[in-house]
Amino acid sequence: MSLLAVEDVTLKFGGLTAVNRLSFAVDAGEIFAIVGPNGAGKSTVFNLISRFYTPQSGALRFDGHDLLAVRSSDVAALGVARTFQNIELFDHATVLQNLLVGRHRHRRSNILSEILFTPAVRRQEVENRERVEEIIDFLDLQPYRDKMIAGLPYGVRKVVEMARALATDPRLLLLDEPASGLSVEETSDLRWWIEDIRRQMGITVLMVEHDMGLVGQVCDRVLAMADGAQLALGTPAEVQAHPAVIEAYLGHPA
Amino acid sequence: MRIVFKTDYVQDIRPWKDRYQLGLYLALLALAVAAPWLLDAFYLGELTNVLIWAVAGLGLMVLTGHTGQASLGHAAFLACGCYANIILLEAGLPFLLAFPLAGLVTGVVGALIAIPALRLHGIYLAIFTLALSILTDDIIVLSEPWTGGVSGKYAPPINLFGVMVDRWGTPAPFYWLTLAVVVLVTLGYINLLRAPLGRSFIAVRDSEVSAQAMGVDIARTKAVSFGLSCMVTGWAGALMGLFAGAFNNETFSVVISIQLLMMIVIGGLGSIHGAFLGAIVIGFLPQFLSIAKEWLAPLTGGGSVAIPGLEFGVFGMILIAFLLFEPMGLYGRWLKIRTWFELFPFYRKDMFKRQKTYLRTERLK
Amino acid sequence: MEILQLLISGLANGCVYGLIALGFVLIYKATEAVNFAQGDIMVLGAFVTIGLTNAEHMGLPFWAALPVSIALLAGFGYLVERLLIRPMFGQSQTAVVILTIALGFVIRFAVGLIWGHDPQTLQNPLAGRDLALAGLVLGLEDVAVIVVTLLLTGSLFAFFSRTRLGLAMQAASQNQLAAYYMGIPVRRVQGLVWALAGAVACIAGILFAAKGAVDPSTGLMGIKAFAAAVIGGFGSLPGALLGGLIVGVIEPFASRYIAAGYSQVVPYALLMAVLVFRPHGLFSQMRSKKV
């Protein structure tokens, strides 16, 4: 059974159709990529899953839940975490604080117990910290733990954002252009991390990516989009060889 | 150079870094408790005033410094707390019940106002709260049966465990009462900041979209922040009313709102220290100016003539200087100095450098 | 008849609010900053003019003093941008708001120090003359205020929609970075906008001081003009004027027909209602941030 199902979804902004009758499904345990030229509606698909946008028609299902029935802030509680194309971290907080915000969906305390900082809150904080430390170890963020985000280099911020998403203990991880702006070395680190995220943590990964090298190395299946609609769906090799995809990227052959 | 070795996560969770720091703050507290024996009545009164402003500053800091919602209307909540406290006292409630209730009432009022207001972003919220603050004056006049309107109200002396506490008659107990409120509020604030709710405030301040993606309910978080902020501000207002002894519709004017916001900016947004440092500036500026005027009088040839608006003029200039040269406020300056000593001789000038970016517009396209 | 009288005096007041609101909107449109000192800059303009023309001060001829004081205030606006606003580049809107509030305090203090705290009136050729029109007796100043305001709004509107510089200012407000890439000198444009806002504030101040007395704390009226700008829609020049007129007209009618205590309340209550119920409708440019 598929973990995430996008069924015949259409989203319009005024006269512009951003997503046009799009359907696809991501199976549990899969690494799935969405590729396509700029403006194809890839990030919009993510924003639909995050419930920042509501489609005019179609259905979104995650693990048997109707995503359209929940609010944006409740999507995380279902087990969906994401990163953003233009890094959206909490700039005036430390790396550690950022990752701890990722633990927010596991909050069991209430205002009163937090103001009194009861032993239960303290235990919860230690648990949160332990989980966050595992992720810090996993992504080699130890040197940056107490650093402010505002002073970190771009590549590190990308990793912190991924770490924050992992701190929520998601079942589905949405990565919006994880390799953009990264150096060759950082990209190859990323490749191993994505594979480990699936293998060690058992998390399904859905990503938007332009780097076809990375996509070919780690992804099981690829969806190619153009103008908000599906062009091709299949293994990376199949999609790369698909005539419609070649046409979308290179233009119509003379 | 001082290095702290960490061996346990609890070390990061507890509010102090090491024994040295804990000792420092305990010494400060001891000094504060002993103040009535060290200061004369005038300076004790001034210190009480500073502490009351600090409570108000802590209240606004929750909302503006940590949740990123600027309010230009917190004098309205000072007024709310002040009047609620006095009205409850006059209704015969003991102070120990009336005072907490005054804060709670203000908090609930604040949270209710927040529900429509927090749909507004940035400056629109500032405008909304500014209008609220201006309206407060009229609302107090219009609801004269409760508030006494233009003629105002007098604060009755309060009975605390059999001791009559009055700002003029018994300045020391009143000071201790204020200090107790300050300490309790500060401890609650520290706890909040190391717990999930405090972090969600910071998350909302720095990036609403990703806070939402992490499962933080933006509207609810903002309303809670507004409510907590108003509750603490209400307590500050109640203390202000008792401290002033008499007040009316003009006591909590829009100028107080603005002064409060400026105070926490000077102190340093986003830090508890900032509220205290700002309160010290606000509290002692008039004294400082009158001393400076006496010093300058022989030079300028004029006597000690009162210059109207001088305080605000100087205050405005200080604020402008801070915004231009030290946007992190007094606390930011202190952090730099401290880091310089801690890292000596390895401090680099650009350690606290901010990235200058093009304005991230809050409008879409 | 009484209603018409009230309407005219309300409109004249509203025009002054509208002119201050124009200053807010000009700066907001071009720099996305909100200048809370606009009311105080207006007072500064009024006092500079009074200082130049009034007999007890320098006593220059009225018509010669006008361009001088307008130019002075334009220069002041430019300097404020250059010395205070530009270094704030990259900081939040709220920081700029606080800065301008502080600037307002400083201006109020300086004005009081230089010209004193007593209310003063601008001596002008129109003072005390009435215009009888179809049974209505109108103060010539009121008429002048309305005419000048309409002319000024019209020419500013034309400036923004027709001239190259005006379009450049608009572009800089829509997207600083893109405007920069397109070769618009964003920083210089912003300086010019502040200069323009200073000049407009000066004209508002002159009109206000000609109609009635000003004192240093008159600048607080800027808050009312601010309400006008918001009510009219923050992004548009005609909207600002309209908002000013609405606030100006509501005031005398509210104090005439509703209980006296409420007349002060109405503009702010209206402002809050507009902010809460029409936050998107009136600010067409406000939408959620793109991710």
From TrEMBL, chain A:
Single annotated GO MF: ATP binding
PROSITE patterns per UniProt: ABC_TRANSPORTER_2
Keyword ATP-binding: yes
InterPro entries: AAA+_ATPase, ABC_AA/LPS_Transport, ABC_transporter-like_ATP-bd, BCA_ABC_TP_C, P-loop_NTPase
Alphabetized UniProt keyword annotations: ATP-binding, Nucleotide-binding, Transport
Keyword field contains Transport: yes
One of the record's GO cellular component terms: plasma membrane
Domain named ABC transporter: residues: 4-252
Protein name as it appears in the record: Amino acid/amide ABC transporter ATP-binding protein 1, HAAT family
TrEMBL record, chain B:
Membrane-topology annotation of the record: Multi-pass membrane protein
Localization terms from the record: Cell membrane
Record-level GO cellular component terms: plasma membrane
Residue stretches spanning the membrane: 20-38, 44-63, 70-89, 95-115, 122-142, 174-192, 223-246, 312-331
InterPro entries tied to this protein: ABC_transp_permease, LivM-like
Pfam families, A to Z: BPD_transp_2
Species this protein is from: Cribrihabitans marinus
Protein name: Amino acid/amide ABC transporter membrane protein 2, HAAT family
MF-aspect GO terms: branched-chain amino acid transmembrane transporter activity
Alphabetized UniProt keyword annotations: Cell membrane, Membrane, Transmembrane, Transmembrane helix
PANTHER family on file: HIGH-AFFINITY BRANCHED-CHAIN AMINO ACID TRANSPORT SYSTEM PERMEASE, HIGH-AFFINITY BRANCHED-CHAIN AMINO ACID TRANSPORT SYSTEM PERMEASE PROTEIN LIVM
Main location class: membrane
Automatic annotation (TrEMBL), chain C:
Subcellular localization: Cell membrane
Signal peptide: none
GO MF annotation: an example: transmembrane transporter activity
CDD domains hit by this protein: TM_PBP1_LivH_like
Entry GO CC: plasma membrane
Main location group: membrane
Family per similarity comment: Belongs to the binding-protein-dependent transport system permease family. LivHM subfamily.
PANTHER family listed in its UniProt record: ABC TRANSPORTER PERMEASE PROTEIN (PTHR11795:SF451), BRANCHED-CHAIN AMINO ACID TRANSPORT SYSTEM PERMEASE PROTEIN LIVH (PTHR11795)
Protein's recorded name: Amino acid/amide ABC transporter membrane protein 1, HAAT family
Organism whose genome encodes this protein: Cribrihabitans marinus
